[in-house]
Amino acid sequence: MENSVRPIFTRRNFLKTSAASSLALATPGWFLSRSTALAQATGDAKSVCVTDPMSLVNPEFRPALEAWIKKSGGFQDLDATVLKKDREQLKQYLKDHPHQPNPGVKELFIPRPSGAPKVRVLLMGDSPGASKPAVVHIHGGGYVLGTPDSDVPALQNLSKDHDCVVVTVDYRLAPETPFPGSLEDNYAALRWLYTNAKELGVDTSRIAIKGESAGGGHAAALAIAARDRGEIPICLQVLIYPMLDDRTGSSRQVSPCIGHYAWTPQDNRFGWTALLGVPAGSANVPKNSVPARVANLAGLAPAFIGVGSIDLFSAEDLEYAKRLLEAGVSTEFNLVPGAYHGFDLVAPEVSLVRQFNTDWNDALRRAFQK
Hints:
The chain has about 375 residues and is α/β, with parallel strands linked by helices. The protein has twelve helices and ten strands. The protein has helices at about 35-40, 50, 60-70, 80-95, 150-160, 180-195, 195-200, 215-230, 265-275, 315-325, 345, 350-370, and strands spanning about 15, 25, 105-110, 120-125, 130-140, 165-170, 200-210, 235-240, 305-310, 330-335. Helix 5 links the parallel strand 5 (about 130-140) and strand 6 (about 165-170). The protein is globular, with a radius of gyration of 19 Å.
């Protein structure tokens, strides 16, 4: 399955350190709990959840998490200085770990309308004359970090497992490019795939979109744009612990029992503020920039949403799934007990992770078979 070999979790720069996918961070300390900060954010410093957040972690996930924490240094809040450091470290890592050749990865620069900069994409599995399903993939990184290059091994597996074409997008990052720059990059890649389907060997009735974390938020926004523009049908949106609501941890307090590991309320405020160009949780944000704030979800593509129960995004993802169902959108929701943000990358061999990966792959397979 895809996640068993992923070398990097782009938001936190997880690096693969062994064939068994044991992981560490390029910047020490990203994965430590911030009990004091969370207590201040929630106004509940006496909460047992804050006092002992490890007690919330499913026993299956604890060994990998505790091993990483033991190995790591101190926590660094995401800010402009840390962002610059992380980007530099990720760039160096990718330079030291180039792509593997099978299946072949093509780097392309596709045009955007109105003379905007071309969009870099990586293409896998294309087969002229065939009629394959396809996935447009959007990488994670809190809207401010990451590159599609980090996901290539996982996407090569995805292409092989589903015999599908994969396009992953090197969208422009915030804060240098605020919304809607990244959305237009992602949409340009989707439209390019659709309009060049014959040359790529793509069945235009079987195009899915997929993303993890901020990439899941981007994928949700892309599904909304595809519905509104009415040009390209989407057969499924696969949203893996998607980042959907800027109000989480800003204008809306979060439970002290979530968001202790990997992505915290202060990180969420930084990422969303960078994307929106206004403070996270503001009364007015750019139209359709925040999927959770879109009033009408009717007519969207069917969805698979998966998230850990102690992930900062668990409540907002559950609410989004509920609203999709109420809008008549076929939705599968997978809540993994005691799992933190990025659980599938930290502990890929755990039985709950294997089942989680099976579930979203089965959802994708069913969508491709229709």
